[in-house]
Amino acid sequence: MAFRHVYIEHPVYISIKLKQLNIYSEHDQYTFTIPLEDIESIILDNYKSVITAYALMEITRYKITMVICGSNHLPQGICLPQHQYYKKFTMLNEQFKMSKQVIGRLWRNIVKQKLKNESTTLSILNRPYTSNIEKLIKLVKPNDVNNVEAQAARIYFIALFGQDFQRRDENPLNDVLNYGYAIIRSMISRDLCAYGLEPCLGLHHHNYLNSFNLSDDLIEPFRSYVDLYVFYNMQTFNKGLSSSNKKLLVNMINGYVYIDNQYETVTNAIHGMVSAYNNCCINKSSRIVLPEIRDEK
Predict the structure, then answer these.
(1) What class does CATH assign to 4-79?
(2) Can you state the angle between helices 100-124 and 130-137, rounded to 10 degrees?
(3) Are 219 and 114 in contact (CB under 8 A)?
(4) What is the pLDDT of residues 186-222, one digit of tens each?
(5) What pLDDT was estimated at residue 90?
(6) Is the pTM of this model over 0.90?
(7) Which of 52, 47, 45 is nearest to 67 (CA)?
(8) Where are the domains of the chain?
(9) What are phi and psi of 176, to 5 degrees?
């Protein structure tokens, strides 16, 4: 099973030899070699790096998530396997055939779990307004027609990061949060493609310019995990997206969440959630397993 997460910050030359990823670093004057079957993800954070077409082909064949960062060091694109699943057209039909009622209930379940995780996060950190979010959970209806998710978000982020915090502001904290969310989003997108699901067909998100609407739906219950991780490392992350902080964020996916009656790594939890969503599409069911944040105090 793949377990390595590769972060590249200096100019390198990437190639393949004997099923090994070869990374030649001019900075270190050394070639690093990693078996392809061991790699879960690659974050390429240097636009001067060079990669062969054969390496790109093998990376997708081994279902490795590759995130490409821009000159601002934020994720700009994702390289994903598109033709690994042998029933791609079948799954596309299954997605199209999902009824509005099933889609509405699925989105309700996702929003409720997101709010539960927000409430638990505030409780773990002894922050205020936990009860306010708990009350809102009961108000979530199919399709979240009353937009309870947004009401909770306004309470949650102020309680977590203070009265002056705004998610839309450009500051080091938001850069760190966005980087963390982007890592989780890329992992979800990879698994959706591996199951033959079309990531642009979302439940709630329907932006025609967004190729990953479904990823943006399924990431919601994971966001509080990222928030909690960032809060615990706030003193470090206040310095912004340094190379050491980006490595720390990549390591986040080795942490654990509770899903389907057991603790799993974030990577395995994503596998389990996407597998459950795949079954929802086939069985036209809204029964999906989602990650939980638990207060073990």
Answers:
(1) alpha beta
(2) 160
(3) no
(4) 999 988 988 889 999 999 999 988 889 999 999 999 9
(5) 86
(6) no
(7) 45
(8) 4-79, 88-283
(9) -65, -45
Question: DSSP state, 176?
Answer: H
As a whole-number percent, the residues of the chain with pLDDT over 90 amount to 71
Alpha carbon distance 294, 291 (integer Å) = 10
| 14: nearest Cα among 38, 32, 41, 39 | 32
DSSP 42: E
Instruction: Tell me which long-range contacts 174-178 makes (C-beta under 8 A, separation of at least 24).
Output: 175/74, 175/240, 175/241, 176/230, 176/237, 176/240, 176/241, 176/245, 176/249, 177/226, 177/227, 177/230, 178/74
The pLDDT of residue 82: 65
pLDDT at 117: 97
Interatomic CA distance for residues 69 and 185, integer angstroms: 14
CATH of 88-283, one of 3.90.550.10, 3.40.1620.10, 1.20.120.920, 1.10.530.10: 1.20.120.920
* pLDDT per position as a tens digit, 118-174: 999 999 999 999 999 999 999 999 999 999 999 999 999 999 999 999 998 989 999
Q: What is the DSSP string of 71-84?
A: TTSSEEEEE---S-
Q: What percent of the chain clears pLDDT 70, i.e. is strictly above it?
A: 97
Q: Are 220 and 226 spatial neighbours (Cβ–Cβ below 8 Å)?
A: no
Could you list the residues known to form a binding site, using ranges: 149, 205, 220
Binding residues for Mn(2+): 149, 205, 220
pLDDT band at residue 84 under the 50/70/90 scheme: low
pLDDT of residue 76: 83
Q: Starting at the edge strand that comes first in sequence, how are the strands of the sheet with 39-44 ordered?
A: 4-8, 39-44, 65-69, 75-79
Q: 103 near 84, Cβ under 8 Å? A: no
Helix (H) or strand (E) holding 232: helix 223-232
